[in-house]
Specification:
The complex is a heterodimer of chains A (114) and B (110).
Chain A (H helix, E strand, L loop, with lengths): L3 E4 L2 E4 L5 E7 L5 E7 L5 E9 L2 E4 L6 E3 L9 E3 L8 E8 L8 E3 L3 E5 L1
Parallel strand pairs in A: 2-11
Antiparallel strand pairs in A: 1-3, 3-8, 4-5, 4-9, 5-6, 7-8, 9-10, 9-11
Chain B lengths: L3 E2 L4 E5 L4 E3 L2 E2 L7 E6 L6 E5 L10 E2 L10 E3 L8 E7 L14 E6 L1
Parallel strand pairs in B: 2-10
Antiparallel strand pairs in B: 1-4, 3-8, 5-6, 5-9, 7-8, 9-10
Amino acid sequence: NAGVTQTPKFRILKIGQSMTLQCTQDMNHNYMYWYRQDPGMGLKLIYYSVGAGITDKGEVPNGYNVSRSTTEDFPLRLELAAPSQTSVYFCASSYHSGTGNGYTFGSGTRLTVV
Amino acid sequence: AQRVTQPEKLLSVFKGAPVELKCNYSYSGSPELFWYVQYSRQRLQLLLRHISRESIKGFTADLNKGETSFHLKKPFAQEEDSAMYYCAPEPSGNTGKLIFGQGTTLQVKP
């Protein structure tokens, strides 16, 4: 049981480049999330999805895009990388509310934009 | 919206001292609350949940509806408890939107 898998673990991008951060879960969770974590700061919600085909903006969506074509996958796209997007990105998933099971997080992607 | 507040960004204690990490929530109803922990350079992991009333690694948390709080406590801190701690509610059944508090860094000094 892999849980939530994020790839890549590390990446260095040049300003203006684009990339996709991959997130896959094998627990049949319907809720999925993308967060960024900056040094000394908490988690900021970028985008989230309550099921396949449904996505919505979080607190800091500018500069990012997502899609949810399947229950398992929730990729995060950076189109024109900027230094302000240097951060650690975490993907998470959960069942619907009421189960008391909480969320499962991926191991993170450390992104540096230079 | 379901929101939680962690008023302390950093909490520094000596080994063996009691620890209390504060969490307040600002919505009504019967909240389902969790504490998550993130050790250095690791993923977040669930520490404990309100519904199970469990004690994990010596930590406990009691939901106080009168004070709208869910503080995390441990009577004797250990150096290995040094980490970042997040309080969070369960996703709303309507939107699934999950907003974390800013987190509290616990530093346990030898």
